[in-house]
């Protein structure tokens, strides 16, 4: 089987880790090594995620000595807000600069049911999907768990000003989450923990483009996290053209791993299906898609593609989108059309980064 290339190395590294990268258990272990009682970990988590302080000095129920140890051992923040775009529909897109000068995007989306945040898991992406701005310039590096967590904390602080809360998280921003699996899992454990941000597992969704071995591993984790697969094609020929990852992990093997996931967890899978004019959006494609997934416990989310200047795909006409949806419904497939948000700002994933930080996306 063809394997993905190894992650490129970055020259600049942190001299100490982010406090946000530590799970509660990891923090307990560190505290024990310092001769501190483990209950301090819960206090630190409360300061970080409930009170959302911005310095270790603010953690006033810790001893001065412990606060000094924390400041010497950990960084408090590694993200710097560079750009903040606000859409007329309330969507907010953030561009953050990382410690090494690279940048990432985070998006806050407002729904009737609450505030959802879309987080980034990698700086860039190596999978080369031909419709995505995130892959422009390739992969710079994986994000640490703390850099993913900080995205949520930063947005939550912004919502604190209006007494609002992040109610759900989708890991669908820049990068392939399963290509940064260990850091992803630590992120999920931190934001899901009741002493952390306490976001319910069923209010968190992880999306993959199809890293088959990690789908099996994720199924075995025993978490109740929602699971989505970027499918975007009804057959292996079209999928390979849109998504080179299909050459490493072909569609039949992907479908086998999804069946394993459903059997192991009992949970439904969401298929993300972007509609690209004249490529995968005809009625015959809807028929083929329905045949592909007819025996799978799933939901199809049709996505009208956002135009990306660096890509040449065209938007599927509105009437064709509805015709595609109708055909799937007629064949018994549970399907919806994704509501568009942030259409008046740089809405496509990776588009703001590509526009503002051209040196990263050449």
From TrEMBL:
Q: What range(s) does the Radical SAM core domain occupy?
A: 111-344
Which EC class does it fall in? transferase
Q: Kindly list the cofactors needed.
A: [4Fe-4S] cluster
Its Enzyme Commission number?
2.1.1.192
Q: Which residues form the active site?
A: 105, 349
Single biological process term from Gene Ontology: rRNA base methylation
| GO CC field | cytoplasm
- Just give the chief location class: cytoplasm
Which ranges does the record mark as transmembrane? none
| Subcellular location as annotated | Cytoplasm
Drop me one GO molecular function for this one. Answer: tRNA (adenine(37)-C2)-methyltransferase activity
Record keywords, A-Z: 4Fe-4S, Cytoplasm, Disulfide bond, Iron, Iron-sulfur, Metal-binding, Methyltransferase, rRNA processing, S-adenosyl-L-methionine, Transferase, tRNA processing
Q: Which residues form a coiled coil?
A: none
**Which sites bind S-adenosyl-L-methionine?**
175-176, 207, 230-232, 306
Q: Where along the chain is [4Fe-4S] cluster bound?
A: 125, 129, 132
Q: List the catalysed reactions.
A: adenosine(2503) in 23S rRNA + 2 reduced [2Fe-2S]-[ferredoxin] + 2 S-adenosyl-L-methionine = 2-methyladenosine(2503) in 23S rRNA + 5'-deoxyadenosine + L-methionine + 2 oxidized [2Fe-2S]-[ferredoxin] + S-adenosyl-L-homocysteine; adenosine(37) in tRNA + 2 reduced [2Fe-2S]-[ferredoxin] + 2 S-adenosyl-L-methionine = 2-methyladenosine(37) in tRNA + 5'-deoxyadenosine + L-methionine + 2 oxidized [2Fe-2S]-[ferredoxin] + S-adenosyl-L-homocysteine
How the cofactor binds, per note? Binds 1 [4Fe-4S] cluster. The cluster is coordinated with 3 cysteines and an exchangeable S-adenosyl-L-methionine.
The extra comment attached to this record reads: Reaction proceeds by a ping-pong mechanism involving intermediate methylation of a conserved cysteine residue.
Q: In which family does this protein belong, per the annotation?
A: Belongs to the radical SAM superfamily. RlmN family.
UniProt protein name? Probable dual-specificity RNA methyltransferase RlmN
Natural source organism: Lottiidibacillus patelloidae
At the highest ranks, the source species' classification is:
Bacteria, Bacillati, Bacillota, Bacilli, Bacillales
User: Which gene specifies this protein's sequence?
Assistant: rlmN
